[in-house]
Write a structure and sequence with these properties.
By secondary structure, this protein is α+β, with helices and mostly antiparallel strands. The chain has five helices and seven strands, in the order E-E-E-H-E-H-H-E-H-H-E-E. Keywords: Membrane, Transmembrane, Transmembrane helix.
């Protein structure tokens, strides 16, 4: 399932949504040796956008969301009451423009990236000109160890 959110100072705009929340097993980051920064920044360069830099705060937020989705075995921006996107942004001290891409069932960085590339809302998040930082994480559930849940977070 897919979903993404863009949050600006003036409004909260849901482009599309369906997420899974969980606290499953953490997979070592990108064991497939793919570089997510190169993938997303190549796209941004092709579209006259500045590069994104990895951000440890966003990586923690992404890991938290990927774990929640894996535990719940579903993809959603809000898994439970009190765990919506805005609340999670506040929890991690993030203010201003922010966005989130989620997906599941893809085992590699490039496979998740391709899902987002083929979804207008997700692609829009990856190209949003005001974003300068991102965090990407993945997780699995002990119940489905080969099914990967992905979360990608963005901010100014």
């Amino acid at each position: 399932m897919l979903g993404d959110i863009v949050l600006t100072r003036r409004n909260f705009f849901v482009l599309s949504g369906a997420f899974i929340v969980g606290t499953g097993g953490i997979i070592p980051a990108f064991a497939d040796n793919e570089d997510p920064t190169s993938l997303i920044n190549a796209l941004r360069a092709q579209n006259n956008r500045g590069p994104l830099a990895p951000d440890s705060q966003l990586e923690k937020m992404a890991q938290d969301q990927a774990n929640l989705m894996a535990d719940a075995q579903r993809v959603a921006h809000t898994i439970s009451s009190g765990n919506d996107f805005v609340t999670r942004l506040r929890k991690f001290g993030i203010h201003g423009a922010a966005g989130e891409n989620l997906c599941a069932g893809r085992s590699t960085v490039s496979a998740a990236y391709n899902v987002w590339m083929n979804s207008p809302g997700h692609r829009s998040n990856m190209l949003y000109p005001s974003f300068h930082y991102y965090g990407l994480a993945k997780a699995t559930s002990p119940k489905r160890p080969n099914y990967v849940y992905w979360a990608m977070e963005f901010k100014r």
